[in-house]
């Protein structure tokens, strides 16, 4: 049985993932870490300042992190010190934080990191790449919508979409919203962020040409779609060589 612990155990994603682990006969939920203490599925959730002791005592095979960027950096550092594999879904890392994570992971522990663990989004990214490659001279607008609690903007998924589009189209910069006398459109990628209600996660990319528009979109209706990908990643990463892996590796998709 693969022993799993969760950082951010008492959050929206933490609870969804723990419930799925609890139902899976191949996995054992051994507890977690959050800002305050608690219990979840009969297991201890300890305060984040005690993460080193928690990892040393409970010895999970995999630590799953769905917290917030500055906390995730510390949790990955603790997992690296303890030699525990990680699955990281937290978004909103700065370039410096990504670099620190890379240093803590490479050569030390295996990690799956993804801004979106839904299988559908991972296929959607492939479709966006192909459209951007073929329609590199079209006007491109990216829109994302999430629930009113979401802290980072644009979403990690939207940032991955922007990276993909830039890799395929070259010389483009983002423009966040537009207001006033903005003049004629240039080669920018328009980015639009919506926050409201309990929207789980919507992303769309519009390619507008003369006399035609192509729109690709993905809508998540339940956090279970992310949790399924996380569980699949946790099973896959246990026992792998140190290094940073993506959902392409987990799903066996061609990059
Ligand atoms: N990659 C994906 O597929 C995916 C899917 C959904 C959410 N996310 C990301 O996951 C993160 C969490 O999302 P959420 O909706 O569950 O948020 P949330 O606010 O409901 O949960 C985050 C939890 O982390 C806890 N936390 C904060 N600091 C901590 C620390 N130092 N140690 C341990 N726990 C700590 C909070 O108390 C909270 O319980 C966000 O960055 C979000 O963007 C990613
Ligand atoms: O609810 C969130 O927060 C989500 N975060 C990820 C992101 O930032 O892309 C994935 C979708 C849900």
TrEMBL record:
Residues 3-117 form the Dihydrodipicolinate reductase N-terminal domain. InterPro entries: DapB_C, DapB_N, DapB_N_CS, DHDPR_bac, NAD(P)-bd_dom_sf. NAD(+) binds at residues 8-13, 34, 89-91, 114-117. Its EC number is 1.17.1.8. GO terms for molecular function: 4-hydroxy-tetrahydrodipicolinate reductase; NAD binding; NADP binding; oxidoreductase activity, acting on CH or CH2 groups, NAD or NADP as acceptor. Pathway: Amino-acid biosynthesis; L-lysine biosynthesis via DAP pathway; (S)-tetrahydrodipicolinate from L-aspartate: step 4/4. CDD domains: DHDPR_N. Gene3D superfamilies: Dihydrodipicolinate Reductase, domain 2 (3.30.360.10), NAD(P)-binding Rossmann-like Domain (3.40.50.720). It comes from the Archaea. Catalyzes the conversion of 4-hydroxy-tetrahydrodipicolinate (HTPA) to tetrahydrodipicolinate. Homotetramer. Belongs to the DapB family. This is 4-hydroxy-tetrahydrodipicolinate reductase. It comes from Methanoplanus limicola DSM 2279.
